[in-house]
Amino acid sequence: xxxxxxxxxxxxxxxxxxxxxxxxxxxALFESDSTHEYYFVNVTNxxxxxEVEITHVWFDxxxxxxxxxxxxxxxxxxxxxxxxxxxxxxxxxxxxxxxTKSVYRLARVRIxxxxxxxxxANEAVPSFGAVxxxxxxxxxxxxxxxxxxxxxxxxxxxxxxELLNQQLAEEVESLRYDDxxxxxxxxxxxxxxxxxxxxxSRQVAHFVCTIIRATETDAERQFRHGRTxxxxxxxxxxxxxxxxxxxxxxxxx
Length: 253
Known about the structure:
The structure is a single chain. By secondary structure, the chain is of the alpha+beta class. It folds into two domains: 19-148, Immunoglobulin-like, CATH 2.60.40; 157-251, no CATH class. 34% of the residues lie in helices and 26% in strands. Helix 3 (157-169) packs antiparallel against helix 4 (180-197) and helix 4 packs antiparallel against helix 5 (202-208).
């Protein structure tokens, strides 16, 4: 009778205990491929005496969500208590406009009950280790972490170079100084420099610094406009070269 009561009690509480997952995200490289970075979604089953089944993993980005469809980590996947499992997606699969710190909070994991768990940054990533969750017959995927307080190149660096080159290609010096397109060029270029180098920064200060004379004629203003744009484009070329030689880095927290 006692064993029957004990069995019923265990069954009752096993049904009552909520399923709980810890979902973290970090950024890392595979040792075998140091040229490509990935976001790793790590899932740990913290449920008490309950298994969970993962059915979907995605990043809650806008305007469209990005699902993690990794053939090396097929879904669905069942996890025992305290079992850890990981999947990954290329950094380039997510919009480059999203800061890395925000990406860490955008992963979502859905289990078979329909409950969805949100991610947080993995702040305790070893600098070297294997990716959990693969088949025992498969060799481990060894990765090198670029998170957990290390410095790494911002994924936007190449994007900033591309945008600044686009601004260089615009022939605004041939337009009239009062053309609305000229104002747009100045505003957009300044914003790109602020995003790339920060505000304030030496590059932004040099770009926005101009000399205006109140007594200029229309012809003189047009001439100054052409010279000023040419000077500023020289500054943009220097900024591009600086980005190429010294890629931007950010501190992971």
